[in-house]
């Protein structure tokens, strides 16, 4: 058995506009001004409170938690109002189909909550495509290897037959910590030189190229 484990935000879907809007609303709710959109993008993938801490290390932990709660409230409001913008990247659906056809199991390891991830999958008709869903509300987040370890156990796959696909150094570091191979994607929220420095085994520049890179690694090429 083989497993392709995907990050969500910045890899499967482009959620930056919604994330920045919700973080801006959270900051404004606490009189913190307006966050830098580029810096908000860079924290995507971390557990939410850790992301807030990265953005505002000057705040005490209690305030960081309250900002994170305000972010969740803003996100829930956008979901209820149908305002979330989380389109699939071009070529992703084709890549999932190609990996399916090759007999590779699919999974997700994301900093989203399970509710948030399931919402994305439902909106794009991807519910049931993944054999394992790992989210930050189930245990330690990236770059801790716990999500990968749980995914391997649930899928019944060996680490040597697994590839992690992601757009941030947190994804690549998690893969290295779990001793699985990794593919970095160039269309997300961290730069290619950063992904390479973090240890990505391959870099791809289009959604349809992911399957080719994953299969090459799994086949030992």
TrEMBL record:
Pfam families named in the record: HAD_2 (PF13419)
Domain of life: Bacteria
Keywords on record: Hydrolase
UniProt-recorded Gene Ontology molecular function terms: hydrolase activity
InterPro entries: HAD-like_hydrolase_sf (IPR050155), HAD-like_sf (IPR036412), HAD-SF_hydro_IA (IPR006439), HAD_2 (IPR041492), HAD_sf (IPR023214), PGP-like_dom2 (IPR023198)
Descriptive protein name: HAD-IA family hydrolase
Organism: Azospirillum oleiclasticum
Source lineage: Bacteria, Pseudomonadati, Pseudomonadota, Alphaproteobacteria, Rhodospirillales
